[in-house]
Write a structure and sequence with these properties.
Blueprint: H1 4-12, H2 16-43, H3 60-66, H4 69-100, H5 107-115, H6 122-132, H7 139-145, H8 162-187, H9 191-199, H10 204-215, H11 217-232, H12 236-241, H13 253-263, H14 267-298
Helix pairs in contact: 2-14, 3-14, 4-8, 4-11, 6-8, 8-11, 11-14, 13-14
Main location: membrane
Subcellular location: Cell membrane
Protein name: Sugar ABC transporter permease
């Protein structure tokens, strides 16, 4: 009977051609992504300006980063935008998917209309919503021409609520993708489960909450990771709508990194900020990987 030691070489050389073919991709990923990450983190501890240089200054860049009001404002905006975007994207996307799952007429048409904004770039979306939210010829102007002269709706020009104006545009673009992911998960639910729930007299809303949603956990986890990664990287939408204004009221970390690395020519500060963004992504991805792959390993 073969022992584990004799079986291991057979496992190692299984699908050898596929493993050899994947080596260029693996090496590219190691050099570009892992190497670039290590390079960025290393130079975040230097005082590099226009060009990178290995003049280490310890944690000075990070101390300066967390003492800068602009960076603090960008983190606050990211928390507000991120938390609300996660909640409303999942809620609206799931509700739309549940409605489309009722085998309604013209489902393909409605699905295409809802998904269409996702096909647009963030720049186009930002410019469209900048026009729609402009008080001179957008929603506010339209409502006032209908007779409500005192109506005010200009979120992009109000420092206290500008991030919510950006949130509206983000939800408009991203909710369609969430809807499609949720709809795919709902279509994967066995029809017998719905029949059994109807036979037992379980209300539809209870069926969704206590039966369907728990069965869709992998779909929800994957959707959360996709949304969260997009939230951390948000840049185009802010630049197109407000350019970070009024003042720095709509500043986000990605824009802070870009401005310091290319406009202010302060690479060390930009590297420190991008390292903090990388840490944020790791906080999202690592638990997801543990839940997905660690859970599968534990259950065989």
């Amino acid at each position: 009977m073969p022992t584990e030691a004799t079986r291991r070489p057979n496992t190692l050389f299984r699908n050898l051609n596929a493993k050899i073919a994947s080596l260029p991709m693996i090496l590219t990923a190691l050099v570009v992504f892992v190497g670039g990450t290590i390079w960025t983190i290393t130079y975040s501890f230097t005082n590099s300006r226009l060009l990178p240089r290995l003049n280490f200054i310890g944690l000075d860049q990070y101390e300066r980063l967390w003492s800068t009001p602009r960076w603090i404002a960008s983190i606050q905006n990211l928390v507000i935008y991120g938390s609300l975007s996660l909640i409303f994207s999942l809620l609206i996307g799931f509700v739309l998917a549940a409605l489309l799952d009722q085998k309604i007429r013209f489902e393909n048409t409605f699905r295409s209309i809802i998904l269409y904004p996702f096909a647009l770039s963030f720049i186009v979306t930002g410019l469209v919503w900048q026009w729609l939210l402009n008080p001179d010829f957008g929603v506010q102007h339209l409502v006032r021409t209908l007779g409500w002269e005192s109506f005010t709706f200009n979120p992009l020009y109000d420092q206290s609520i500008v991030i919510y104006g950006i949130l509206i545009a983000g939800l408009w673009q991203g909710t369609g993708l969430v809807m499609c992911l949720m709809l795919a998960g709902l279509r994967g639910i066995d029809e017998d489960i719905w029949k059994a729930a109807r036979v037992d007299g379980i209300p539809m809303w209870k069926t969704y909450i206590f039966i369907v949603i728990p069965m869709m956990r992998p779909v929800f986890v994957t959707t959360l990771v996709i949304i969260a990664s997009g939230i951390v990287r948000i840049y185009d939408l802010v630049v197109a709508q407000t350019s970070g204004g009024p003042g720095h009221a709509s500043e986000v970390p990605a824009k802070y990194v870009y401005d310091y690395m290319f406009a202010a020519q302060n690479l060390g500060q930009g590297f420190a900020a991008s390292t903090m963004m990388l840490l944020t992504v790791a906080i999202v991805v690592v638990p997801w990987a543990y839940l997905e792959f660690g859970g599968r390993r534990r259950h065989g």
